[in-house]
Fold this sequence. Notes:
Layout: E1 2-6, H1 20-34, E2 38-44, E3 52-57, H2 70-84, E4 90-93, H3 100-103, E5 109-113, H4 123-129, E6 135-137, H5 140-143, E7 151-154, E8 174-179, H6 186-196, E9 200-205, H7 211-218, E10 227-229, H8 235-243, E11 248-250, H9 260-268, E12 272-275, H10 280-283, E13 290-293, H11 296-304, H12 311-321, H13 324-350
Parallel strand pairs: 1-2, 1-4, 2-3, 4-5, 5-6, 6-7, 8-9, 9-10, 11-12, 12-13
Helix pairs in contact: 1-13, 6-11, 9-12
Pfam families: Glyco_transf_4 (PF13439), Glycos_transf_1 (PF00534)
Domain Glycosyltransferase subfamily 4-like N-terminal: 18-127
Organism: Paraburkholderia kirstenboschensis
Amino acid sequence: MRIAQISTLYESVPPRRYGGIERVVSWLTEELVSMGHEVTLFASADSHTRANLVPGAACAVRLVEDTADPQAFHFAMLEDVVRASERFDIVHFHTDYMGFPYTRRLTAAHVTTLHWRLDIPGLEPLYRRFGDVPLVSVSDAQRAPLPWAAWAGNVPHGMPATLFPFHEHAGGHVAFLGRIAPTKGPDAAIRIARRAKVPLKIAAKIDEADRSYFEREVAPLIEAPFADFEGELDDAGKQRLLGSARALLFPINWPEPFGIVMIEALACGTPVIAFSRGSVPEIVEHGVNGFIVRDEDEAVDAIARLSEIDRRACRDSFERRFTAKRMARAYVEIYERLIRERAARRSFAEA
Length: 351
């Protein structure tokens, strides 16, 4: 099958450090190549892939967004996709609704995976205007605000089974990993760890838009021995931090569409303690690979119950449900169905 993967350009594929969408695009692209498909990746030129790379920018636009318009790079790349579409059987967009108008001009089947929340005011009228665009959700919770959309499938993210090795034994700390933002709850994680009298190691990216929040709400709480901020880590650093953690704290206060860090923790054998928001109940099996809690009080109690969780069971849940191989196979089934449906529509129109 000839497949085009269309990434966002904010980070390279894969990203050097933080970057959810580009990381998933990389995992999917490389797995599709391993399956024998002919894959073309539209991404920044500093990306690394075994697929055919078509650069949409000289580097990740995160590096130049203070001096350039990031949207300009995306629109130019999407026009390139349209012009090349006759070379593909299917075009897979990861660019949110930005790609919708371009799908009208494609000469190939297409599908768009949505990676963001869908409960924001103003989105419904837009999605209704493009109600025929096939979509894939990454969790059932994500699609709840738009149940009538043209959903072609639901495919939870998956990562390479060998990327984060299993750690049978944990150290003494709990971990917070991801991004410093009010929706992610790093301040709640610090309070939980402090009340449980367990050291917390924090590894997170700080966007400029969230720096004032960090300085006002988070930094004053970071003090030894209960909180240590390690900054933004690469994969090796994340493996070290998560693999040796007693648990991952995930005290979110927003409808998280997926939450890749949860499956990264499970791959290490590390249980997840998470607030019951968004996709959490679809990833965390309460009492099996972690605990789903309602508030900080219950999170403190969950830390005291971590001995009830078998780290091997956490790894098993990852291998059963969240590998890149499982994700790629699910997408191939969707691709094949959409290609057949497009061919049938063309045959009917020509009859």
